[in-house]
């Protein structure tokens, strides 16, 4: 069977796990509260705590519209994910869906793009966490002794430093937590997510009394923008898109979910609803409290706003909460990254040793390998470049999921669907068109970087992966 026609069987995903063929199964220990916390923990992070400043610098007060557009596209993508994940409850997320619906070549491109997305998200969030951690330490004064770190150890070479040591440190800590076990890390994640949401509520409660509607004029100083225009609402939406995705990490936990037919949809859709509402409120409070120019270039915009309002104590609390709770994003995406690798390794597209499961039921080898790669990226590169390139990988995956939704509805309309996306043609169209427009709104260097990454991936696929794929060696297993 030619590689472009090889597809995984959806029915095979519902049969008992064959450990002899696919390696040890991951332990099913998660329920819907864990998934909801995993989604909220992944979504609410560097995007709202840090990138709100970058987005406001591109769109002005109209960054609220940017949040709305990015949220709309992600909400539609979330509905598509919810339908497909309950039909195909296996580790791998968009990669797995593409393999079953669009074929092996497209699945490889999607999986390779997801590797880019998850790696760079972890790196970008680690850099964002570093900004808040450094600000938090600088604000502490214990017995007249400052805890400030040397500048050279808090930023990469792009900013005149040597290495972003706090970013490397937090990746190491989260990796250690993941190696303890899935349920243990998920339980701690729930606690940290609550801390993070409380911190945002504190910010809104303090910022709203200082609300000044004059800060919203002019509302759209850089215009709406369009594809290939690098300022305005669309350019900001393409960056702020980073603030919304994360719910796709939930779908990578399908194999470890006790009742995937119910809990995956609750986690995916529920986390998007919670986070969209929270984002809009926080963004409006931030702009109302201070002019956009006051925080657009800050690495810790929310804490900066509070300090300028004379609330230094509250700023320290918010920064401290960010320092404590931002690692939930790292946890969610490192978790998801290892499961993407696991799915591709089981399918023979990556070396089989990456699918090795530890005695604690986690893919330890690939988790450690991923952590080393992302720590190097976080230690050396700036936040905005990491976030932009991560967006490109995500947009490719979301676009593929939208196409999968359409193809499967038309090819197999009678297949049982435990969750059905409402108005599926509209949902799919908004997902696909929105992702294409956002991709065209990214910086050219980001677009070229994404294309180069996939050119490397295709070379690997044709030289090694296509020949070693399970379906190449066992055509009878194909759909």
UniProtKB/TrEMBL annotation:
GO cellular component entries: membrane
Protein's cellular compartments: Membrane
Membrane topology according to the record: Multi-pass membrane protein
Organism: Brevundimonas goettingensis
A molecular-function term among this protein's GO annotations: amino acid transmembrane transporter activity
Highest taxon, organism lineage: Bacteria
InterPro entries linked: AA/rel_permease1
Key words of the record: Membrane, Transmembrane, Transmembrane helix, Transport
Lineage: Bacteria, Pseudomonadati, Pseudomonadota, Alphaproteobacteria, Caulobacterales
Protein name: Amino acid permease
Pfam family, one: AA_permease_2
Gene3D superfamilies for this protein: Amino acid/polyamine transporter I (1.20.1740.10)
Major location (coarse): membrane
Transmembrane segment boundaries: 35-56, 62-82, 159-181, 188-211, 231-252, 264-289, 309-336, 362-383, 389-410, 422-442, 448-464
